[in-house]
Amino acid sequence: MYRNSQLLRLARTHRVLGCDAGLWQPFHNTRRRCRNLYSTSSDISNGIQCQFEKDRRVATLSINNPKKMNIVNSSILSQLTTTCEELSKDQDLRAVVLTGGPTAEGKSPSFIGGADIKEMCSLSSPEDARTFITGVHKACQALRDLPVPVIARVDGFSLGAGLEIMVSCDLRVATQESHFGMPEVRVGIPSVVEAALLPQLIGFGRTRRLLYLAEIINGLQAKEWGLVEEVVQDADGLDQTVDEWVSRLCEMGPIAIRQQKRLMMRWEDCSVAEGIQAGIDEFALAFEANGGQEPREYMVRPFIQNSPGSVLMLPRDASSIVREGSEALEMRAPTSDCYLYSLSL
């Protein structure tokens, strides 16, 4: 849930819109309606919109540029960066979903159709070009720096900068009819910044096909290549998959999920030995935060939720870590280290 100080900081940077009746039209169906909405754009039809779902503490970011296939320009990229940086400060955040907003009537759906060619044509110097492309990188990095998993909900085109933003997310689900590509060489520029993530995802050979040949692939091929984790038939399938993934993420230990993302980021650019040591450090840290309350509670939870008659082994101090359902645990037989308990619900 957003704190007032966070909203005030956002308000100083961009105009913040309230959730008045009739202001918000949901950009995709969802079973849970969010209770808070702010937009970092002064125009509700363009920019970044954020829905925040209080009960699950999940933010959904929508890229909105409906008349232009949701392409991103410097303004939208800056808004995305700022929004992600503010979300990163929310200690209660559990997950983020990134999606493309609705496209104009008669236009094909689009996740992010790429960077604004008109703006790139206006770049008049190497310094201008460096500033623009650094803005793309900052937006991608802000997504990667979010301390919780980010899910890309992809319906339609994901091209150029759009694909770079997509691969900056942790999990990706797309429709069969979505299209993916890196066609920059067709317009006389190389694919850069977060295109560097592609070889780790799909290998150097397939990356060369996308970058050298400007190939466009569909959702099924993207799944085969490992560019997306799941492919579904339509937008309803997207909503169902995203909802399932978010629900599962919210069942996990909130501190552990943040630790796991930190490790995943570390593993990308360290040696195996360094990655192993980083994992040892994070494992120890799990038992340091709040006195190790989270692992102790979450280790017991599956057994408490199990069927009556189940037998489990817990440390002798189990009474100090079983918070819920402890009255249903009946001590069976002590061992040297542990007690055997029977679940009698």
TrEMBL record:
Pfam families with a match to the protein in the record: ECH_1
GO biological process: fatty acid beta-oxidation
Protein name: Short-chain-enoyl-CoA hydratase
Keywords assigned: Virulence
Sample GO molecular function, one term: catalytic activity
Matches recorded under CDD domains: crotonase-like
InterPro entries xref list: ClpP/crotonase-like_dom_sf, Enoyl-CoA_hyd/isom_CS, Enoyl-CoA_hydra/iso
Family of the protein in this entry: Belongs to the enoyl-CoA hydratase/isomerase family.
Domain of life: Eukaryota
Organism lineage: Eukaryota, Fungi, Dikarya, Ascomycota, Pezizomycotina
Transmembrane regions listed in the UniProt entry: none
GO cellular component: mitochondrion
